[in-house]
């Protein structure tokens, strides 16, 4: 990505998704104990079933990636066949690549208006 951006002389933008791991829906049922300080005094032995991923959950990065991947594909991006974390969309002769690394994203375009 960076080499291509340098070759095409376009600006690379960076963003960090602060709450990335809280957005991904889980594909399987996951139960957790009540956290310290939040134990229900009337039901101390009950557990919680998660609806979405939490930080520290081993499924969280994959759930986030799947959510973001589905969003980008729905907006017309193609997922890389060699690198599934690289998404590309083309507009006429211009290209907009998006590279994902966990909750960090870099992107740019041969047309600056596409990066806005």
TrEMBL record:
It holds the Pfam family RVT_2. It comes from the Eukaryota. Residues 2-111 form the Reverse transcriptase Ty1/copia-type domain. This is Ribonuclease H-like domain-containing protein.
